[in-house]
Design brief:
Strand content: over 45%
Structural class: mainly beta
Distance between the termini: 17 Å
Strand order of the largest sheet: 1-2-3
Radius of gyration: 16 Å
Largest sheet: 3 strands, antiparallel
Number of strands: 3
Number of helices: 0
């Protein structure tokens, strides 16, 4: 069975030059899919506006 891994980071995106205020909170996701033997076969990097998304994950513990 193939596996995947997500790395999530939250940070402030820099405001446009001269805007003078804090940036927009964003969620950075780097998702990697692995083949059965553990070799990475796909990487997907996403930047999400933190005010527009709710992330929900189900996993076996």
């Amino acid at each position: 069975m193939a596996k995947g891994a997500d790395r999530l980071d939250v940070e402030l995106c820099a405001p446009p030059q001269g805007a003078g205020s804090a940036g927009t909170p964003v969620i950075l996701i780097c998702r990697t899919a692995f083949a059965d033997e553990g070799r990475p076969v796909e990487i997907n990097e996403m930047t999400l506006d933190a005010a527009s998304y709710i992330l929900e994950y189900d996993f076996d513990a």
